[in-house]
Design goal:
single chain, 600 residues, mainly alpha, two-stranded antiparallel ribbon, two-stranded parallel ribbon, 22 helices, 56% helix, disordered N terminus
């Protein structure tokens, strides 16, 4: 796992105009290659120390571990920023393709670059660590009890009392207003650093990581959203009508936006927890994965072992013993930790781990398969040069585990691993597809808007006093959602979502929700599957696994279209795979929505 916030403070040598240095000969290709080789070695030597500092802080949050992580990150930031600036010397040099790609990736290594002046790297690192820890240790009081985010999520998922939902939804958002000033300062510092690196702002830097120009990438995400937007609006219309049936006009009107706290998830990014409210009236699902896991005696370790078994069935090597010794699989009771699930590659070689507060339920069953996808990807590209030890793009890194998850949630797979005695018939396809769409399709606009908001913040289009208004304008525009009540003047609702204070770019998740279906469609074709895509499981398909791993082993060594083509035969992102997968459901939703006034 590479550090997500890197900045710099380096000594600047000033040369007078006309000096001998200013007249130095243009660097040679050999000098550029030597520079990159040395830079890679320096960053790699520093990486394990930074990763272990970050791991300790994430699994044992104290003032001291925050200080240690901030110090380690600041030192790495200074190193990488200095090297990124030095790399500019080789702009225009006719280097070989490998060196050219490494020079580019070196400049993009910094997710949050700091200005090149004394103290800036340390300040940025301290702010980043503080924001992450403020979120992770956040608590609030409800009904006389102190609740963590995990507690609040359980209530949002299970309660059907709109007053309780509103109180808990608003309660969690009392944690984030304290972040506003620190976040604004972090944005100012990182933007200054990005401009020094030659980018317009941090948003432009982030959009430059996709083997195309920043504006072209923004247009590409618009294109993909237009492919899936009609289906999302169809789902939104159906869910809103069922919520109206459940709660009545006073809570959820039959037209207009949906109240965000009614959708079973703290951020309304996935709606699967309210399946009981929106389930088809004429046919029911004959099983509950939550109940199956409990009935079969699953515990958190068995969940992770099952995920490992999926990847082993594709011919991939088992996880190393150190994974089981060093991972944090359940929430410790004696200390504060970052519960947000994540996968780590601590030494950029074989020390792979996950960090989860695992519970035995369907969501965690899926999450385990997802997080392990990161680990198997990390191990597959570990033989690449250091700067290529990453995903083809960050969307690929998220999509690998999601691809596994598409198989892992099918009744076909549940039967293959003994959780179901027999897969249900085709009459249960609509319930299954609806459950899947409530998570996968409902997520798409959310996956897009997080960074849309940050792009506006980084560009200066949205200033701190308008952070929250801009946030809800986007949530209305893309998701068709509204808060359950008027928001306080000091609200900072973006900070109530981990990836904002955690400074993790988010468009990767939107892309992953497209790529995973493209991967799945291609894999099912490779194995000769003739049935509907939503019934296809690649479990046990060794030939698919070989081709899949060949893509993983490429890492970031080639542009992502080449990696995509290596596995799917296609070189362009194509959301038609989403439509193919959900075709029966979309037709069913259209029928259900007759007479409704869809849109908001």
């Amino acid at each position: 796992m590479k550090s997500l916030f890197v900045a710099a403070s380096a000594t600047v040598l000033l040369f007078a105009a006309g000096s001998a240095a200013a007249q130095a000969p243009k660097p040679t290709p050999a000098e550029a290659k030597a520079f990159v080789d040395k830079a890679e070695a320096e960053i790699a030597a520093n990486s394990e120390y930074v990763n272990k500092s970050a791991w300790v802080r994430a699994t044992y949050i104290t003032v001291d571990t925050q200080w240690l992580e901030a110090k380690a990150v600041a030192e790495q930031t200074a190193l990488v920023t200095r090297l990124a600036k030095e790399a500019a010397r080789f702009d225009g040099v006719a280097v070989d393709p490998v060196t050219a790609r490494k020079l580019k990736l070196l400049k993009l290594y910094l997710v949050l670059p700091a200005p090149d002046r004394p103290g800036a790297a340390g300040e940025l690192a301290t702010l980043a660590s503080k924001l992450d820890s403020t979120y992770s240790t956040g608590k609030f009081t409800y009904a006389g009890k102190t609740l963590t985010l995990n507690d609040a999520e359980d209530i949002l998922a299970s309660s059907r009392d709109p007053a309780e939902l509103k109180a808990v939804w608003e309660g969690w958002r009392t944690v984030s207003p304290v972040m506003t000033q620190d976040y604004a300062r972090l944005v100012a510092l990182a933007n200054e650093g990005a401009r020094e690196q030659g980018f317009k702002d941090v948003g432009a830097l982030w959009r430059s990581g996709y083997d195309m120009e920043p504006d072209a990438f923004a247009a590409e995400t618009d294109r993909l959203w237009k492919q899936v937007e009609p289906f999302y609006k169809n789902l939104h219309c159906y869910v809103r009508a069922r919520l109206n049936d459940k709660y009545g006009d006073a809570v959820q009107p039959r037209t207009g936006p949906i109240r965000a706290d009614l959708l079973g998830n703290m951020w309304a990014q996935q709606w699967g927890n309210i399946y009981d409210v929106v389930a088809p009236r004429t046919v029911q699902s004959s099983y509950s994965l939550d109940k199956l896991l409990v009935a079969k005696g699953y515990d958190p370790i068995k969940l992770v072992k099952t995920g490992e078994g999926f990847y082993s069935s594709l011919g991939l090597e088992p996880l190393p013993q150190t994974f089981w010794e060093r991972s944090m699989i359940t929430r410790p009771q004696d200390r504060e930790v970052v519960c947000h699930a994540s996968a780590w590659d601590v030494d950029d070689k074989s020390d792979i781990r996950i960090k989860m507060c695992t519970k035995v339920d369907a969501d965690n069953f899926y999450t385990v398969h997802h997080e392990l996808g990161h680990n198997y990807y990390q191990r597959a590209y570990s033989e690449q040069p250091y700067l290529f030890r990453n995903g083809a793009n960050d969307g690929f890194h998220e999509a690998i585990g999601d691809f596994a998850g598409l198989s892992a949630t099918t009744p076909t797979y549940l039967q293959q691993i003994g959780l179901l005695d027999a897969a249900p018939g085709a009459d249960e396809d609509i319930p299954f597809l609806l459950k899947t769409a409530l998570d996968k399709i409902a997520f798409l606009p959310f996956g897009l808007l997080i960074d849309r908001w940050r792009w506006e913040v980084f560009s200066g289009e949205v200033t701190p006093e308008h952070y929250n208004d801009a946030w809800w304008a986007l949530r209305l525009k893309y998701q068709g959602l509204t808060p359950p009540g008027e928001r306080p003047a000091d609200a900072f609702d973006p900070g109530a979502k981990y990836h904002v204070p955690g400074n993790t770019p988010y468009t990767r998740y939107f892309l992953a929700h497209i790529y995973q279906f493209q991967f799945h469609r291609a894999a099912c074709a490779q194995m000769g599957w003739k049935g509907p895509l939503h019934r296809c499981s690649v479990y046990g398909q060794d030939a698919v696994g070989k081709k899949f791993n060949a893509m993983l082993e490429m890492g970031a060594s080639r542009p992502w279209p080449e990696a995509l083509a290596a596995f799917t035969g296609e070189s362009r992102t194509d959301a038609s795979a989403v439509a193919d997968y959900f075709k029966p459901l979309n037709a069913w939703l259209t029928t259900q929505n007759k007479g409704e006034h869809c849109g908001w």
